[in-house]
């Protein structure tokens, strides 16, 4: 059975908010809330693939401790910018 668009968005939002670490919840969750509904199919696929990654790897990429793989590098930059702007607004 194929996943509906709405079900996909709900699944991805839940995965963004229910990570292995609270730090990643606080980065990925707000990003998902703000952007998922407007994402193109390509952007959704890229974000879905990122959600499958290990939290420790994601954090190292976001903090610039290790370079993100080429397939995730653009999205990692977007997430980093989003999180930085969000933190400055708080």
Walkthrough of the structure:
The chain has helices spanning 5-17, 22-35, 41-51, 55-62, 70-89. The chain is built from five helices and no strands. The protein has 90 residues and is mainly α. Helix 1 runs antiparallel to helix 2 (22-35). It is globular, with a radius of gyration of 13 Å. The protein starts with a helix and ends with a helix. The protein has a single domain (5-89), classed as DNA polymerase, domain 1, CATH 1.10.150.
Task: Give a quick rundown of the structure.
The protein has 90 residues and is an all-alpha fold. 73% of the residues lie in helices and 0% in strands. It has a single domain (5-89), classed as DNA polymerase, domain 1 (Orthogonal Bundle), CATH 1.10.150.
Decide which structural class fits the backbone: mainly alpha
Helix content: over 70%
> In what range is the share of β-strand residues?
under 5%
CATH superfamily: Flavinator of succinate dehydrogenase
Strand tally is 0
- Cα end-to-end separation: 42 Å
Low-confidence segments:
none
User: What letter string, H or E per element, gives the SSE order?
Assistant: HHHHH
The first-level CATH class is given as: Mainly Alpha
As a whole number of angstroms, the C-alpha radius of gyration is 13 Å
Mean pLDDT: 95
Number of helices: 5
- Shape label: globular
By CATH, the architecture is named: Orthogonal Bundle
Biggest sheet features: none
Domain count: the total is 1
CATH topology: DNA polymerase, domain 1
């Amino acid at each position: 059975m194929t996943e509906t668009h709405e079900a996909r968005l709900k699944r991805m939002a839940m995965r963004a908010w229910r990570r292995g670490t609270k730090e990643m919840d606080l980065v990925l969750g707000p990003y998902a809330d703000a952007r998922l509904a407007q994402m193109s199919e390509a952007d959704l696929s890229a974000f879905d693939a990122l959600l499958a990654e290990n939290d420790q790897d994601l954090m190292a990429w976001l903090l610039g401790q290790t370079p993100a793989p080429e397939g995730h590098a653009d999205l990692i930059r977007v997430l980093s910018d989003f999180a930085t702007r969000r933190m400055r607004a708080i």
